Predict the structure of Monocarboxylate transporter 3.
Amino acid sequence: MALNFQPSLIMLGTYFDKRRPLANGLAAAGSPVFLSALSPLGQVLLEKFGWRGGFLIMGGLLLNCCTCGAVMRPLEAGMKRKMERVQDKYEAKEMLPIGERAEEAISTIDGVKKSKKTKKKQQPRKGKKLLDFSIFSNRGFVIYSIAKFIMVLGLFVPPILLVNYAKDIGVPDTEAAFLLSIIGFIDIFARPSCGMLAGLKWIRPHVAYLFSFAMLFNGLTDICSARANTYTALVIFCVFFGISYGMVGALQFEVLMAIVGSQKFSSAIGLVLLIEAFAVLIGPPSAGMFVLERAVGHPTALPA
């Protein structure tokens, strides 16, 4: 899955510049489409084919990634250089305040490009680094990485524990599984909508603030979910969680590219996903331990 995920995001950054936020939002909407169907489908497959047959069918569905990967084509060398130049200029105009600073940044980019071409003629060509760790000298990237690590510690906990929590408070299995479908259904519309919003001319220079709001909104939604002890309350939580989750999913990589630029995006996304992997490894098991300790320490705190 990791080998599928990262290259697809890099390809989006290669092919799109002006409408990249919308492209990210539409591409990210594929995940909630399947999430909305995964839980009910898993129940049906388990009942009819058992867990072995269910996994076999899921594996067959995942083989469609091969078809999607087959239609991706690298840009020709000349077109790629032209796209990178256009992207850098467009990002400078969009991400910086209008006026002299934007024009100054564009002239600086052109100067850097010309100096690089001159150096390439003078010096022998070197192999491109697989991961450019010099990106950690970028303060914005460091802050982004720390923020994403903290956020991801809890981001995936609700989807993982939600169904079991609903069953614990007496919700039937089918209705409990439907809660994930609600999150996925709301997420389907939240991601493209947020991508369109982030692409607006007066929003895109401030997309980092919109992403910060999405992170804050998601955290507050999780805090309020502690009061949800009925099925109706859980449905309301799922609606708001789906909106905030979709906003985060649509904006996270657009903000990363705005911070590091298209040239270092492939290294940046690789390092960010590596950092996130540790957070995913720590977060959900830690939440499970907290639930277990609460149940052991206070046997009446949770339903039997």
Q: What stands out?
A: The two ends are 36 Å apart (CA to CA). Confidence is low (pLDDT under 50) at residues 96-102. DSSP finds twelve helices and no strands in the chain.
